[in-house]
Recover the amino acids of this structure.
């Protein structure tokens, strides 16, 4: 039996009536959780399920589906909530999904019909609002032996890639994460990110279950999400306070919203002891502002190919500006150009591709270094570094972090490859105009060396979003898409 399932069974025996999960529908005890997992796993086995996808909001039902697949040895494929219909169809077909568990049956059936995928609807499952829709696959998809989950990353171009993960790899990361962060049974973890996001899946489901903590899953709308990328800040901050959460996981944009809200007078959630921030680089200035407000923020770093978290800051092991020390099971090395190489709990390859390791290490594409005390520092993305016309290397993420902490700037993407100066495409915050944005750029430039400063600004025509292909689900700009959208304006600035 898996470590997570063994822990759930143990908690069900030791504290059967204690609350394991609280969602929008109510609470579920440890006894009930174990009962529902066994019932659904039996149903999946009886149906001969080969691979199951979950397309649903955060809820106890999502967690039960995950654990039931684990119990039945059925590979699980979470469907990211920001995927387009074409990407969902790609996910279902390339992973050989024959069963989809969803709380949005009509939407899914419409998608399948429009795509010409044969399917049949089944009765409501034995737990929650999830319904089973059976797909007819061609039977030619072969997942790696021991594959327990396929997490799809949107990538920067083309179709999303499926990262195949073993149960051992995911549980090792969850165990290390629980150990390093001091997770305990008295914790209440508030799920702010979709469970389909691997970071929340590992850190927000598996780690709390291992230690017997309570998972709070009010759903994405319940924590302030609006669509794929909108955030109701008041509802978001209220959820942090009203849930009584001790731990949560945020992306940098959520941390910025929390910091600004508290600076403007909203009460800080006092019961939080650990706010993990990841998914994209975080500005040191934003971390310092959070610290001044007494917010317990800890930056981390990871990637799907290493089953999520690789390194993280924690109480007693905290260095702002770094992404923390590597987790106990992780080993790092560095290529000659500074690329970070990771070993420990690695994936079993992409769907349809062989894993290409370097002496047992995975090349991350990220650049960085370890300091004298073992803290990992990131300096940029290998493929994003650009060289100016004056021969200086610039990491756009570094410049964007400095710009992004200025209040008038909501989103930014910086360009300058082989150019005499750098240009930024900027999405202003509501109510902010060109003058306020240029003043913000000047303030950020004062903190940067001359070769990294932004000399020209293009005001974006619309926000970067998942819908227009200019933003990722983890809060990063899609540089190639943005560059293509503003190519004429960028070129015109240099022609001047």
């Amino acid at each position: 039996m898996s470590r997570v399932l063994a822990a759930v069974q143990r908690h069900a025996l030791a504290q059967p009536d204690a609350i394991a999960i609280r969602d929008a529908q109510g609470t579920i005890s440890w006894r009930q959780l174990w009962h529902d997992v066994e019932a659904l796993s039996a149903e999946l086995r009886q149906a001969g399920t080969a691979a199951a996808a979950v397309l649903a909001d955060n809820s106890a039902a999502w967690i039960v589906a995950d654990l039931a697949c684990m119990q039945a040895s059925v590979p699980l494929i979470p469907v990211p909530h920001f995927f387009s219909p074409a990407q969902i169809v790609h996910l279902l077909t390339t992973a050989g999904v024959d069963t989809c568990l969803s709380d949005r049956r009509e939407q899914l059936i419409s998608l399948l019909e429009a795509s010409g995928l044969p399917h049949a609807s089944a009765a409501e499952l034995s737990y929650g609002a999830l319904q089973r829709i059976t797909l007819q696959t061609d039977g030619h998809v072969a997942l790696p032996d021991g594959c327990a989950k396929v997490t799809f990353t949107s990538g920067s171009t083309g179709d999303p890639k499926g990262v195949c993960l073993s149960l051992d790899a995911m549980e090792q990361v969850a165990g290390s994460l629980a150990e390093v962060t001091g997770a305990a049974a008295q914790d209440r973890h508030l799920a702010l990110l979709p469970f389909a996001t691997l970071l929340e899946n590992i850190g927000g489901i598996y780690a709390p279950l291992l230690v017997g903590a309570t998972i709070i899953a009010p759903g994405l709308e319940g924590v302030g999400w609006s669509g794929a990328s909108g955030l109701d800040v008041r509802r978001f901050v209220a959820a942090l306070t009203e849930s009584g959460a001790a731990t949560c996981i945020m992306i940098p944009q959520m941390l910025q919203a929390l910091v600004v809200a508290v600076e403007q007078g909203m009460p800080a959630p006092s019961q939080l002891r650990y706010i993990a921030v990841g998914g994209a680089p975080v500005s040191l200035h934003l971390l310092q502002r959070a610290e001044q407000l007494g917010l317990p923020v800890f930056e981390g770093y990871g990637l799907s190919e290493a089953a999520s978290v690789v390194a993280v800051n924690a109480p007693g092991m905290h260095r702002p500006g770094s992404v923390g020390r590597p987790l106990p099971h992780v080993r790092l090395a560095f290529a000659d150009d500074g690329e970070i190489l990771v070993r420990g709990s690695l994936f079993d390859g992409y769907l349809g591709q062989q894993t290409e390791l370097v002496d047992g290490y995975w090349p991350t594409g990220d650049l960085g270094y370890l300091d004298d005390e073992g803290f990992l520092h990131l300096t940029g993305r290998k493929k994003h570094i650009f060289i100016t016309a004056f021969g200086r290397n610039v990491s756009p993420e570094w410049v964007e972090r400095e710009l992004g902490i200025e209040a008038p700037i909501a989103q930014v993407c910086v360009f300058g490859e082989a150019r005499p100066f750098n240009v930024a495409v900027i999405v202003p915050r509501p109510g902010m105009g060109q003058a306020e944005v240029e003043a913000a750029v000047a303030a950020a430039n004062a903190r940067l060396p001359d070769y990294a400063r932004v000399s020209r600004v293009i005001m974006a025509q619309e926000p970067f979003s998942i819908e227009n292909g200019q933003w990722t689900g983890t809060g990063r700009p899609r540089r190639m898409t943005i560059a293509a959208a503003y190519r004429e304006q960028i070129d015109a600035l240099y022609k001047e």
In short: The chain has a mean pLDDT of 90.
